[in-house]
Design goal:
The protein is α/β, with parallel strands linked by helices. It is 40% helix and 21% strand. Bound molecules: iron/sulfur cluster.
């Protein structure tokens, strides 16, 4: 075991040994860039990591880290992992132990802890907890397991375990195989928010362009409805997301909702969500259309209730517009309203966030989704940004705690959690809900325990047999033109995937 020397590292040299992907991932976690060398020597302040698998039944990993310090002296550190767990697949175990070794070595060498999730890099940490619960592990065993095997902090291990336990009542069993959810993606927005890296396009100014898209989408919806009927499926929840679905012109939006209701909703459909996103995309006519189509949940996504922040992130509306939109949706009687906020937005302080949360508390939403800013390539913010400082990452972490406190004061509990790449401080996004107001679709999409049929550009179809941990997926293209031009091929492939899974 190495001593905690707290060195500076300029970069790392790749060794071509078959483990590069895991090494590169851990280096990215510690923000250590890859370096090029002209010869085999290790440059000053650079490290090189070698790994070797030892044993075969329950393999372990021996990791050696070489480092050349500023006095040009070569240091060598090593770590032997514990053996793989008996129930682990060998490849999964090797990947995990390798990452854990590198994580621990880099942590000791640099003194840096890159966020509370340890080596867990996946989008869906609750999936692992569900697997452990399925295997009969108890709560304290799971929390210790996440800490020891994945270096997850005690606090996050407890949070994700609590969330998974709360989700157990919503998970389907093998007998519920025919109950599916449907996602419909509308790829347009009225303007681009500066932090956004989604593949959304600006709503075309020429209506014939919108028509072409909607004609393709109608075929997509009809084809999905036929597949659902042929395979004897039942739609549990519907979700129209994007982009911003409400950015469509009034008549188109109303026609889309009634088509979805007619073709996809059944008497068993328990939830119908529309992301109304920003107030500049929504008006009373569109709110009425949602109500008439039987929408049960609307998402209003201010991200912040600070005027200065709304300007800074490129929103063309003010706080008054958000409040007015919220109240109109509430007044018309749509049962569940979600509000989305982002912590870590540029220039925001804890005081700003507290003020945002106080304003939201007055509105009494049923759900609150707290995102951590993720700076991704493709966002305007990233283009003008060097990345986040340590102070900003720490601030994002404190902000998540503040948001949790306010959600709890509003009577909400955390019910789903997911992670993305490049999140400030390697943190997470958490969905809170009043008990009984949880979004079914959000739980199913994150836990991957229910088949989801994707309609529209960039949507994913995932066929799943509950209880069997088997998944087969198909993705529609992100590019709108490609989606329209190749639609028949995508429809055939989706139908084949669903038919293969459900016609047996
Ligand atoms: S409204 Fe949503 S999808 Fe559209 S640009 Fe803003 S963040 Fe991105």
């Amino acid at each position: 075991m190495i001593a905690a020397t707290k060195v500076k590292i300029k970069g790392y040299i790749t060794v071509k040994d078959g483990f590069q992907e895991a090494v590169a991932d851990m280096m990215a976690l510690f923000e250590i860039p890859e370096m090029e060398t002209l010869d085999d020597s290790l440059p000053s302040l650079a490290i090189c990591i070698r790994n070797q698998v030892e044993g075969s039944q329950l393999p372990s990993i021996h990791t050696v880290l070489e480092y050349v310090d500023e006095n040009q002296e070569r240091q060598e550190y090593e770590r032997h992992s514990l053996p793989a767990e008996p129930e682990e697949l060998t490849t999964t175990a090797i990947r995990r132990l390798l990452r854990l070794n590198i994580f621990q070595l880099l942590h000791h060498l640099t003194g840096y802890t890159p966020g509370p999730w340890g080596i867990m890099r996946g989008v869906r940490p609750a999936k692992l907890v569900h697997r452990l619960l399925d295997e009969g592990m108890d709560t304290s065993g799971i929390i210790s397991h996440l800490h020891e095997h994945y270096a997850v902090s005690h606090e996050k291990a407890t949070l994700i375990t609590d969330i998974a336990l709360r989700q157990r009542n919503f998970l389907l069993e093998a007998k519920d195989k025919q109950r599916v959810s449907v996602y419909i993606g509308i790829p347009y927005c009225l303007s681009k928010c500066y932090y956004c890296s989604f593949s959304s396009a600006l709503l075309p100014s020429v209506h014939s362009e919108i028509d072409k898209f909607l004609q393709a989408l109608e075929k997509d919806i009809n084809s999905a409805a036929d597949t659902i009927t042929k395979c004897g499926l039942d739609v549990d929840s519907l979700y129209i997301g994007g982009g911003t679905p409400t950015s469509l012109p009034e008549q188109d939006f109303a026609a889309l909702l009634s088509l979805v209701k007619k073709k996809l909703a059944t008497t068993h459909t328990r939830e119908f969500t529309v992301e109304a996103g920003r107030p500049d995309s929504t008006n009373e006519t569109k709110i009425l259309a949602m109500c008439q189509a039987g929408v049960t949940r609307v998402s209003v996504n201010p991200q912040s209730m600070q005027e200065k922040t709304l300007k800074r992130i490129g929103r063309n509306h003010n706080v008054r517009d958000i409040i007015s939109m919220f109240q109109k949706i509430r007044d018309i009687g749509i049962p569940v309203i979600n509000m989305d906020i982002i912590v870590g937005l540029p220039g925001e302080t804890i005081t700003d966030l507290e003020d945002t949360l106080k304003q939201i508390s007055v509105l009494c939403p049923d759900n609150l989704t707290v995102h951590t800013l993720a700076l991704k390539r493709g966002s305007l913010l990233m283009e003008n940004h060097e990345g986040l400082s340590q102070d900003q990452k720490l601030l994002a972490s404190k902000m998540l705690v503040t948001a949790e406190r306010y959600a709890s004061q509003m009577g909400m509990v955390p019910y789903y959690l997911y992670r993305q790449k490049n999140m400030a401080g390697n943190l997470e996004n958490v969905g809170y809900a009043l008990p009984g107001k949880e979004c079914l679709y959000n739980i199913q999409i994150i836990d991957e325990r229910q088949t989801i049929i994707g309609i529209g550009p960039a949507s994913a179809t995932k066929a799943i047999v509950p209880g069997k941990h088997k998944l087969s997926s198909f993705y529609n293209p992100k590019d709108i033109r490609t989606y329209i031009d190749h639609l028949p091929t995508h429809l055939q492939r989706r139908e084949a995937l669903i038919a293969k899974w459900f016609n047996n």
